[in-house]
Structure formats: C-alpha cells, structure tokens
What does this fold into?
Amino acid sequence: MSPHQNYNTLVRPSWLKSSDPSVRLAPSEPTHPPASPTRKLSNGALDRGGCRRRRACQLRPAFERLQQEGKIDHWGIGGLGQEEAIKQALAHDKPPSAVQCVVNLLNSAGAIGYVSENFDPNSVLSACQNHNIPILAIRAVQAGALTSSMDRKPHASGFDKRDFEDFELAKPFRNLANDWHVSPASLAHRYALSIQDVASVILGVKNRKELLECLEAESQGILSKVEIQQIENCIKEG
It folds into this structure.
C-alpha cells in the first residue's frame, strides 16, 4: 500500500473478520469508483425530482439476493444524502447491517453535506442508535477542521468553504486538547470511538505517521462521560 494512500478502518466491527475473503481494506475515498452492476439500477432512478427512495427500493432486493446466493455476508449504506430517505431505510423491517455516519463534535458533514438543506448528522446517528444498527463513523476530524492545522488551502471554487469555517469554530477544542496535552486529531478520533454504537471509525489519514497516531488514540480507550461533556461544552460555550 502506498504511504500516501488513505487507510480504511480504525476498529472493525466483530462481524468483519480480516480472514473473510469477502472483506478487503481499500482506500477510504477512491477517486474513480469501479463500475458496478447496481449502477445500472440507479441510472434513470435519480432525476431532478429526487427519486432517491426508488433507488433504495431497487438496491435492497439486489443486496438481499446477493446474501441469499452467499456472495456477501452483510450490506450497508452511507448515512449521507437525502435525510428522510436514509431514515426510512433505517426503519425498514430489513435494515442495513451497518451505516456510515458523520460523527464529530461539530455535528458537521462540511463540504459533503450538500444533498439535504441543513443536513443534521446527529439526526441520522440517533436513528441508527434507536434501531440498534452498528455505526461506521466518518468525518471524525471533519476534513481537517478538528486537527492542529488544515493541510490544504481553500479550493478556488469555494466548495469546501464550510470545512474552513468549521476550523475556525473548532478553536476552543484545539485549546482544550492543548490543555490536556494531546493532539486535536487524536482527541477527535477518541471522541468518535466513544459515541454509543460506533463499531468502527473510517480513517482518512494520508500517511503512516497519521495512521500510527490514530492507532495510539484507539489504544487509550474511550473517553469518560465527563470528558465527552467537557469537549461538547467547549464548542457550545466557545
């Protein structure tokens, strides 16, 4: 694996076995997703009227058929997109085995939360918790907003403006991390791992140094309720 390639999970759920040939580690944000048979189902299902529910209805039977054929053990969905459609999928009598949810103390999806106006990640997170669906946390450091410094300049198009606004909002968090003698990134990952029903954290690290920092954060265990409250309060009061 290239040292500049993104690494995947920080902690696997119990049902993701490393020896399982149906599961493999992959970059967390592939630049060019491979062609998929399910893509044929989605073509034409999405239009300006927003027919995302139809797409979900088509994909579910496809996944269930693959399970019956023994080609997959589990299937999941991304908790980004049209918020109400996601909640309907979670409440289905055959819900996904896991859901990728934005989990960070800013409750922000940043630049990728553009489908639903005023997208509320915590609302999707709560829905997963209410239905006992394992959570795969993403955006633990909110595209760099919860680290010591941004690793890039704002894009000329302005599409990532929210990420840089979040960095400014997170100043009290960085001060708290400094008071606790830990890096903001490490503390942000521990925060995500400490949230109820989070089975795994999907990393977006760029190199082995950042990966080792995340592994060290995980080894320290989850935060106490008091620590979580302090972290959340520092943003509310900041």
User: Anything to note?
Assistant: The chain is about 40% helix and 5% strand. The first strand starts at residue 76 and ends at 78.
